[in-house]
Amino acid sequence: MARLVVIITLAATSVPALGVDGGVGRSLPGAWVMPQGGVIGPDPGFSLTVVPVGYSGSISGTQEIPIAGTLVTDISTDVSANYLVPRYVYKTEIPRINLASTLMVPVNWVAATAAAQAGDLAHSTSNAKAGLGDIIMSPLSVGIHLSNTNNLAISCMIFAPTGAFTKGNISNTGLGIWTFMPNIAHTYEWPKQGMELDNFVGFDIYRHNATTNYTSGTIFHWAGMLLKYVSEKRVGFGGIVSNVVQLNNDTGPLADVLHGLQGRAWGSGPVALFVARHENPGVTIQFRWVREFEVRDRLKGDVLLLGLTLKLD
Fold this sequence. Notes:
Blueprint: E1 3-7, E2 45-59, E3 65-67, E4 70-90, E5 97-118, E6 121-132, E7 136-147, E8 150-159, E9 179-190, E10 195-206, E11 219-230, E12 235-246, H1 253-257, E13 264-277, E14 282-296, E15 301-312
Parallel strand pairs: 1-15
Antiparallel strand pairs: 1-2, 2-4, 2-15, 3-4, 4-5, 5-6, 5-7, 7-8, 8-9, 9-10, 10-11, 11-12, 12-13, 13-14, 14-15
């Protein structure tokens, strides 16, 4: 099995997935942790981020994977998405607490090819579709400034089934289900050493898909990133380690055929970034490569992020 994931991103965002029951889900190793991810800035106001995202994945062989209520093999998919990410930071009277609300609106293009079984015969199927994806809402993120160098951000992302989803279509622009991701991001800095440690911990809680009679198990994921800055914090480099673990089996008729599909994976790799401009607008170029290992019941491959972060205040 092999997969290549390419993410071109202008901000922290979700990774588009072909389907929760497709061996990918909402989270890939090392994709959620971001530099300064635990910091919600003290300055109130509105910001807008534009986020283009690309994904290319494949899985070969005879292993069957359920996608949109259909068992398929030899999957190949390409996804591109553009996210609009408005965010508002509220004015608070508590010095160590900041509050924010975030919305992520994706427009997706999805193309996929797979082999599907119809009775005793196998046939190839291909689909392509474009349209609105699953909107992600963070109604309230709470930033806690434990100190000048120690910060937490606590929130719950809500994935709404706004994207098109049809049973049997392997190129849906949405997943057809609500998903909830309570999460905590943490950032700790050593200014004198020019170092930063970022962590992201979350749980992906999937609702039942009534269309396919399939429920994916809850996913726990953690990612840690250590960065070393040089040249007055304009250049940073370091590494990422991440773990994705499914805590309980998928359920439903197709899941029973495949014995639950309780997946897990580790990932690790390098990260580098260049801060071209700190503000008005903030411009950061980031690269990361996270290679998966110790993978079970999931697609296996690499996460490659190469992109530009542009923040307009």
